[in-house]
Specification:
Elements: E1 4-9, E2 22-23, E3 28-29, H1 30-48, E4 53-56, H2 68-83, E5 88-91, H3 108-112, E6 118-121, E7 125-131, E8 134-141, H4 146-149, H5 160-181, E9 188-193, E10 195-196, H6 204-207, E11 214-215, E12 227-231, E13 237-238, E14 247-249, E15 266-272, E16 278-283, E17 289-295, H7 302-311, E18 319-327, H8 336-342, E19 348-357, H9 374-384, H10 389-407
Parallel strand pairs: 1-4, 4-5, 5-6, 8-9, 9-12, 10-11, 12-14, 17-18, 18-19
Antiparallel strand pairs: 1-15, 2-3, 7-8, 13-14, 15-16
């Protein structure tokens, strides 16, 4: 059987400006350029490998109202695929949705202009997409909009929990209904921008717009589908390893923050065949995030010790944060200017967090130290060191012999 070469990606979030600065050559934030370069990298790979179909699973932009500059940048890249004769399915994600159901999403312009080879998945629907190697059925599930799904009077007065359960039921029923529409002779893909039970969430929680309804994995694991392409969760993961159909989050193409520091970023390359789909994750050159944890409390020369710790990390082109442990008397020896000089190779310094160990101040109440006995002073000292009460009692008992000798 002919294999359909499918490229699955998601969660571009064009407009994320965290940990970046203005690029003078383009007038655009450098981190926005990072996201666009990753998109270019994906498109280059697809065209070089003669991709048949591209499915983008939602969240083209960071906000519902992207600037014209960001819209133009996204459209130019979609046009590259369209001009090459590659069909593109654009799913509507939660970041693409307007505040009111009646308004257009940030990607609806492609549908309005009837752009060649572009399908906008703005509602639950099975689309028959013609590719150079044959047709593919793509069932689209945009991010669930409560106002649209729960428009009937019977849902009024329900609690938030009850509403979430109703949304989950409706989405699952819609997916089941679309599965029954599938032609068993034609490869079929379910593309959804949803949270799925069992998925590992990450930094998308920090940029999420609104609350989230979770769809059960069992609603997606229908043999009617040859591949389930997911967006919304930023961490790449497969939810149905070894099973059919593959249920896969492509993940985001760039790291949002340090919560995604160790996560590989990329897209999925799928060889779609009815009943026997194969896929692989292709990693992209996403900007690295690096955390340096340096403890110089025992160092005679804390700045030199910090320099050695920094030298052990590759900071070239990375977004870097430093977590520095030091003592109070070392603070004047580690000036911020000198620390930043050590981090000069970094693309951006995301933060310098100084965790300073200071001597605990013993609260003695109304008594001065000279008015307290040795026993009382020892007890106070142990309490400030957070020693367990039973341990304090034991130590004081052993100390009695010493105090007794002093009393003699």
């Amino acid at each position: 059987m002919t294999r359909i070469r499918l490229l699955h990606l998601a969660d571009l979030h064009i407009g994320m400006e965290n940990y970046g600065r203005l690029d003078p050559a383009t007038g655009v934030n450098g981190r926005v350029l990072d996201f666009l370069r990753r998109f270019d990298e994906v498109i280059d790979y697809g065209l070089d490998h003669e991709v048949d179909l591209v499915i983008f699973c939602g969240d083209a932009f960071k906000t519902r109202n992207p600037t014209p500059t960001y819209q133009r940048a996204f459209a130019r890249r979609v046009k590259r695929l369209s001009d090459a004769g590659v069909p593109v399915v654009l799913l509507v994600g939660n970041h693409d949705l307007p505040t009111m159901v009646q308004r257009a999403s940030s990607v609806d312009i492609f549908r309005t202009l009837d752009v060649s080879n572009v399908v906008v998945g703005r509602e639950e629907q099975v689309h028959r997409v013609e590719t150079r190697h044959g047709p593919v059925q793509v069932a689209t599930v945009p991010y669930p909009v409560r106002q649209r799904l729960l428009a009937r009077d019977e849902y009024r007065g329900l609690s938030i929990k009850e509403l979430d359960e109703q949304v989950q039921t409706i989405v699952s029923a819609n997916i089941e209904a679309m599965a029954k529409q599938v032609d068993p002779e034609v490869p079929a893909v379910l593309a959804a921008h949803v949270s799925v039970s069992g998925a590992t969430f990450g930094s998308e929680r920090s940029v999420m717009i609104g609350r989230d309804a979770v769809v059960q994995k069992s609603a997606l694991a229908d043999p009617a589908w040859d591949y389930v392409a997911l967006g919304h969760v930023h961490k790449h993961q497969s939810l149905n390893d070894g099973g059919h159909p593959p249920i896969v989050y492509a993940g985001s193409l760039e790291r949002i923050d340090f919560g995604e520091e160790g996560q590989p970023k990329g897209f999925c390359w799928v060889e779609l065949v009815r009943g026997e789909t194969a896929w692989e994750f292709v990693e992209v050159d996403a900007r690295r995030f690096v955390t340096i944890r340096a403890d110089v409390r025992d160092a005679l020369n804390p700045l030199m010790a910090l320099q050695q710790e920094v030298a052990a990390h590759d900071l070239e082109g990375a977004v870097v944060r430093l977590i520095l442990h030091l003592q109070a008397n070392q603070e004047p020896l580690v000036r911020d200017r000198d620390v930043r000089a050590l981090l000069a190779d970094a693309y951006f310094v995301g933060g310098i967090n100084r965790e300073v160990e200071r001597d605990a101040r013993v609260r003695l109440g109304d008594l001065a130290p000279e008015e307290m006995s040795d026993r009382e002073l020892l007890r106070k000292y142990l309490e400030t060191r957070s020693v367990d009460a039973e341990r304090i009692k034991e130590l004081l008992e052993h100390a009695e012999a010493i105090f007794a000798n002093d009393d003699d």
